[in-house]
C-alpha cells in the first residue's frame, strides 16, 4: 500500500488517489494478460498508438478522453480518484 508521508502537505489530495489505485490494482488483469497484449503489439507490423488492457472502464477512458474537452477530462479524473478542487 502506497501512502504519502504523515506530514505531507499533499496528503489530503493524494490519499484518496492511492486508495483508488490500490483498489484498481486488486482488480487488474494478471501479468499474463498484459504480456499477451505486449506480444501481440510486438508482432504487429503497424501498431496503433494506444492499446488498453484492463477492466472495461480502464479500457474505455482513453477513448473517451480523445473526444472531450480537457477540462471535462480533468473533472472526470478528479471524480474518479476522489480529489476535490481547492
Structural notes for this entry:
The chain has helices at residues 11-27, 31-43, 56-67, 70-81. With 86 residues, it is mainly α. The chain is extended, with a radius of gyration of 16 Å. The mean pLDDT is 84.
Question: What topology does this entry show?
Answer:
Layout: H1 11-27, H2 31-43, H3 56-67, H4 70-81
Mind describing the biggest β-sheet? Answer: none
Structural class: mainly alpha
Q: What's the overall average pLDDT, rounded? A: 84
- Low-pLDDT runs: none
Summed up, what is this model?
This protein has 86 residues and is mainly α. It has helices spanning 11-27, 31-43, 56-67, 70-81. It contains four helices and no strands.
Any key phrases for this structure?
mainly alpha; 4 helices; extended
Amino acid at each position: 500500500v502506497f501512502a504519502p508521508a504523515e506530514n505531507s502537505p499533499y496528503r489530503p489530495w493524494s490519499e484518496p488517489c492511492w486508495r483508488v489505485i490500490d483498489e484498481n490494482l486488486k482488480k487488474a488483469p494478471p501479468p499474463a494478460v498484459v504480456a499477451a497484449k505486449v506480444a501481440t503489439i510486438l508482432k504487429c507490423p503497424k501498431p496503433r498508438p494506444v492499446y488498453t488492457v484492463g477492466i472495461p472502464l480502464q479500457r474505455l477512458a482513453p477513448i473517451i478522453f480523445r473526444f472531450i474537452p480537457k477540462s471535462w477530462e480533468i473533472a472526470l479524473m478528479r471524480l474518479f480518484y476522489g480529489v476535490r478542487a481547492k
